[in-house]
Amino acid sequence: MRCSIRRCFITSVGIGFLWLLITLKIPEEIEDDQNVMAIKGQVATLALRVGIEDVAWEWCEQEDNYDKRKDPRPLEDWQNLTFEYFKTIQQRRKTWLTVGISSVPQPDQRSLLYTLVSLFRASSKIQQKRLTVLVHLAHSDLTGLRETVLHISTLFSPQILAGQLLLIHAPPDAYPSVDDMRNEAHHGEFYSKQNIDHAFLMSFVTGLSEYFLLLEDNVFSAPNFITHIHWKVNTMRSNPWVLLEFSNMGILGKLFHSKDLPLLAHFLLLFYKEKPLDRLIPHFRTLLAQKNPIICRPFLFYHRFSYHISNDTQKATPVQKKNPYVPDNPPGAIFTDMKVFDVHFPWEAYTLDESFFWTHNVSAGNHLTVILNHPANLSKVQVLTGTIVDGKYALKKGQVELGYDPEGMPQYCTSFTLLGHLFEGQMNQEIFLKRMGHNVSCVRLVVKADQVGGLIIRHIYLWEQNTKDMEAAQSWR
Questions:
Q1: Going edge to edge, which strands form the sheet with 55-59?
Q2: Do the beta carbons of residue 265 and residue 199 sit within 8 Å?
Q3: E strands, 216-319, where?
Q4: Is residue 130 within 8 Å of 232, Cβ to Cβ?
Q5: Quick count: other Cβ atoms within 10 Å of Cβ 161?
Q6: Is 334 in contact with 369 (CB distance < 8 Å)?
């Protein structure tokens, strides 16, 4: 029997909806089949029996021939269908907070699993009753999607059965064609898919909870983050807000009112070609009359970096695509005029592990400088000071500078330019001016005011431009 386009399309939009419906039916209705979650797409239907090891695929061949959607404006149609479908379903289980994650395949396939483990371990059983975790598996490869669902269901079947973890997958024709996305590339950056991924995610959330927290698929969460967020929201009751930020890294840790999500999803669909998501969200905030960002300390979420360790058998394998979240930190030497003690040395601030540099009683003009062995073309610099959870021992006033034209022995840079100031002890700055990031030999953290007491410089992370980005930038010129 032929599947109509409309029927398959609505079915694909309701991937996770069916699971939500199944888990919330009265016990008499689900006694025989409460361990089933359906994830359906236009070309394939994945039937996953959560409590059992097998995963069965039911293929539905579509006889209707139609061209792939070229104009993304009809994406509003599936958004409207989403809202219509949810009018009766979402009222069955409404929590206080939904954590939303849009996940794409990563070189380290465990990143999403570690993120989910961190979320649930950081929450008590009582806190989890106020929480729904929604994961949009934005995979284009159905085999990879199947493996990811199997891994998640194996580890988190109790959370899935309790309705605390929902998995969804967008229909393929919700996206522009590959050729269209290539034409929309700007300086080698492909952010159209990311914006549409999150528009779909946010369309689903509407009505699930009172608040929505946006995370990424490679983070770890501070213990009792729900309690911290709840306390902050209560303190803001007399002050209208659109966006609260529990991290200063990109889109990580952004808290919205769920009632604003339909408008935000629509906004992302309108401007999905124009800017990356981390630049569209602040613009949306200002449109809703919150002029300044509200940064909430302590920061509760941080990126989890993973590293690929090669061996002799792996050297002959093709080079994997670089994970954009993982810093490069090219080889270099570290110099400082701050006090150095017998533990936690200056070079530990430049490592890619959890070590750090500890010092005491710094003065204006003190610095910690990374001098690279060879000039590098940098695309991003991140400096983190203070403790992870409560931000103690952070640098209160500081700035980061990029240095050029090294001379002498040992070398020192003869010229510097200001990259940015630390805010709340941290800076996460992309280098948009290519000439500023070109041939950088030094990265210098400078203290701008005397500070009594301890200081932790946790990390200085550097990202290099990859070859494709550099070629795209040159062709743009």
A1: 36-40, 44-49, 55-59
A2: yes
A3: 219-221, 243-245, 254-257, 294-295, 301-303
A4: no
A5: 18
A6: yes
Nearest-10 crossing angle of helices 15-24, 5-13 = 60
Q: Where are the beta strands (DSSP E) in 177-259?
A: 209-215, 219-221, 243-245, 254-257
Round to whole Å and give the CA distance between 303 and 215. Answer: 10
DSSP assignment of 368-436 equals: EEEEEEEEE-EEEEEEEES-TTT-TT--SSEEEEEEEEEETTTTEEEEEEEEEE-BTTEEEEE--SHHH
Q: What does the pLDDT average to over 279-293?
A: 94
Give Cβ neighbours of residue 381 (< 8 Å, ≥ 6 apart): 400, 402, 419, 427, 429, 431, 443, 460, 461, 462, 463
Residue type, 433: L
- 3-class DSSP state of 441: strand
Q: Give residue-wise pLDDT tens across range 66-75.
A: 333 344 444 4
Could you report the per-residue pLDDT of 370-392, keeping only the tens digit for each?
999 899 999 999 999 998 767 78
- Distances 201 to 151, 196, 255, 338 between C-alpha atoms, Å: 21, 9, 14, 47
More confident residue, 38 or 377: 377
Q: In what order do the strands lie in the sheet with 440-447?
A: 332-336, 367-376, 440-447, 398-407, 412-421
Secondary structure of residue 312 in the 3-state scheme = coil
Element (H, E) at 55: strand 55-59
User: Can you read off the two tokens belonging to residue 460?
Assistant: 């200085």
Tokens of 145: 């999607």
Distance in Å from the first CA to the final CA of the chain? 54
Inform me whether the pLDDT recorded for 108 exceeds 50: yes
pTM above 0.70, yes or no: no
- Helix, strand, or coil here: 166? strand
Q: Around Cβ 320, how many Cβ atoms within 10 Å?
A: 10
Q: Which amino acid, one-letter code, is at 63?
A: E
Handedness of CA 103, 207, 293, 223 (dihedral sign): negative
Tokens read off for 82: 């989403």
Q: Beta partners for 429?
A: 381
